[in-house]
Design a protein that fits this description.
This protein is of the alpha+beta class. It is about 55% helix and about 15% strand. The protein has a three-stranded antiparallel β-sheet with strand order 2-1-3, with no helix packed on it. Helix 1 packs across helix 2.
């Protein structure tokens, strides 16, 4: 519900809004058929929908966690220094000293000199 409320208040309804709407309508219809309206309640279908949504959410969170771990691992491979081309030669500088517009030398198979 919180995810759907956030989506609606931001004006960008998405998957959480759709899931919340589907569960709410199925539950409301099932209660109405149980006590007043003719028809068959959808409790089993509602339970299946909730299970599938929870499974999908769990798979999504798991995939995002793995991707974040892979990105962190990749970031740990970044070198501490770079070779900046200046005045026809190269100089080794810390990454923090690089500025927009600097030309950097990238050697194939190059390793971190620092």
């Amino acid at each position: 519900m919180q995810g759907a409320a956030g989506e609606v208040s931001a004006g960008t309804p998405g998957m959480m809004t759709l899931v919340t709407l589907a569960i709410t309508v199925a539950f409301g219809y099932s209660v109405a058929t149980q006590f007043a309206l003719p028809g068959m309640p959808l409790y089993w279908e509602l339970a299946t929908l909730v299970d599938v949504m929870l499974l999908g959410h769990w798979l999504e969170v798991r995939a995002v966690g793995r991707a974040s771990g892979a990105l962190a691992e990749l970031a740990s491979l970044l070198p501490n220094t770079a070779e900046r081309i200046r005045d026809g030669g190269t100089e080794t500088v810390p990454l923090e000293e690089l500025r927009v517009g600097d030309i950097v030398l990238a050697r194939p198979g190059g390793e971190d000199p620092g």
